[in-house]
Amino acid sequence: MSAKEYQQQQPRIAVLSVFSKEHKVRRGEKRNAKGEVKNGSESLRNKETSTSQDDAGSGISIFEPLSASGLRSIRFALEVEPRPREIVANDISQAAVESIRLNIIHNNVEHIVSTSHSDASAAMHTFNAKGKRFDCIDLDPYGCPSKFLDSTVQVVEDGGLIMVTCTDMALLTGNTPETCFVKYGSIPLKSPACHETALRIALQCLQSHANKYGRYIVPLLSISVDFYIRIFVKIYTSALKSKETTSHLSYVFRCVGCKTFRFQPLGVVTERKGTVPLFTLPRFEPINDCPHCQHGYQMGGPIWTGVLHDQAFVSKVIQLVDNKPERFNTSKRILGMLSTIYHELIDIPLYYVIDALCAVVHCVVMPSMTFRSALLNAGYSVSESHAAPNSIKTDAPTSFIWKVIRHWVKLNPISEKRLNCILTKTLLMAKDSDDLTPDVNFDIHPHAPSRSHGLLRYQMNPTKFWGPGVRSTINTTQCAKQKDNQNKKKNKQTKNKIKKCKINVIK
Q: Which residues have a Cβ under 8 Å from the Cβ of 474 and sit 6 or more positions away?
């Protein structure tokens, strides 16, 4: 395993260890139509906890449909605590399956890890047809995972964990929005918040597949790091809770001028005491030109606008890594990343980047501490995002954000040449007298997030060309080989004819 692959597995093992402990305690819980735990299942849970606390076979079952060499499955068997009771490592390549078997024997985990030789989706459909489900599915393909999601959501136990990795970040961050819609069912908008948008697109795609079978997702942890994103979600079955999906999805409207954004939810859920919730359609506010710069909007989505993380779960993962740093060679990076995630505002979708806001009006970049203090002094909440340095997540309205920028420009004037820009002039000449938001105060707020803890939050790429590498090109069958060789001879003959052709130049 390369150093790159080894680093990627560290957070996954920590998350699996915490999930395994929780799942061991909660095994046997039953839920009602609303997705709530039934009171009667509490005694069953306590009974199972007491009788199977020390059983060797009480761990979770894991299925890895795209196993390759099987090293992830072997690491799960050796490092996840409590130990998994069963791990199935699958791959479509016969050569890969043979390699997995040799690695299993070499690491003495034959009693936990077994192999499977099949197409990933076909294997999961087969297990589902036989009534076999797993507590955890680790889906880590090269590129887009969407073609595997339909079978994945069917073969996971109720309350089970799905770990999904996406490495096609160019697609998810808006380079080819039409292709992203084909694969994920959502249109991304190019913006500084593109990495969080990628997470939310992946979550809505997974939720849409789960809803087909009356199931819904509960995100535990959503990470954007290096060249990929990874989401960890629990999945439950409830037809009623599945109907709440529309309230967790929204279209995004982004101004082409000042780059601010707004959301339009797909549905509204109103809780009613003693009965089922009321599901209604939202009111659509007419969208004219942007009130701040008079430019138009681009529309993207739908994206997931529910929570990205379960803070209680993230806290347990932090505690595990902090208490046993020797188990994780990249513990400093994991702690820095998870600490930033833990302090994120969970109910605020997307973020702004201070550099990008200041670039719109061509002013000096405002220090992050100054910007956060201005928001906190006005009574708004603020946090960073783990997805981008110098980022701001806040519940402050965009009118107040531009009010802060205008006051900053008064203290740090821009050149007359920059004022000739119509966009800059429109934003800076807006009157604060019509704004009902609080006054701007740049005094450093005592509760402004500090970087004095020395946490490794945003690590630079450790080597050149840091990325997912190249796609595997192993031919799994004779048919695939014939397909690859198709038209090769014809193309070669055509090239030779072109070389022999002489062109007479008329002078």
A: 93, 95, 96
Domain containing 222 equals 3-244+305-342
> Quick one: 379 and 323 in the same domain?
no
- For the stretch 135-158, what's the b/e string if a residue is b when 16 or more beta carbons lie within 10 angstroms of its beta carbon? bbbbbbbeebbbebbbbbbbbbbe
Q: Which of 238, 297, 219, 227 is nearest to 263 (CA)?
A: 297
CB-CB contact of 28 with 41 (8 Å):
yes
Together in a domain, 215 and 362:
no
Could you tell me where the beta strands, DSSP code E, fall in 297-413?
A: 297-304, 352-353, 382-385, 388-394
Number of domains into which the chain is organized: 2
Residue 231: inside a domain: yes
CA–CA distances in Å: residue 72 to residues 9, 134, 143, 235, 424: 7, 17, 18, 22, 52
The pair phi, psi for residue 47, each rounded to 5°, is -65, -45
Global pTM value? 0.85
Q: Does residue 492 lie in a domain region?
A: no
- CA 322/CA 328 separation, integer angstroms: 10
Q: Are 304 and 266 in contact (CB under 8 A)?
A: no
Instruction: Classify residue 278: in a domain, yes or no.
Output: no
CATH of the domain at 411: 3.30.56.70
| Residue of 55, 56, 51 lying closest to 77 (CA atoms) | 56
- Taking CA atoms, 186 is separated from 55, 242, 328, in Å, by 45, 19, 36
Q: Note whether 79 and 149 are same-domain residues.
A: yes
In sequence order, the β-bridge partners of residue 163 are 138, 232
In this structure, the answer to whether residues 174 and 232 fall within a common structural domain is yes
Q: From 422, 429, 290, 444, select the one nearest 366 (Cα to Cα).
A: 444
Please write the tens of the pLDDT for every residue from 421-457: 888 888 887 766 556 678 899 999 887 655 545 555 5
For the stretch 96-131, pLDDT in tens is 999 999 999 999 999 999 999 999 999 999 999 999
My answer on whether 206 and 104 are in the same domain is yes
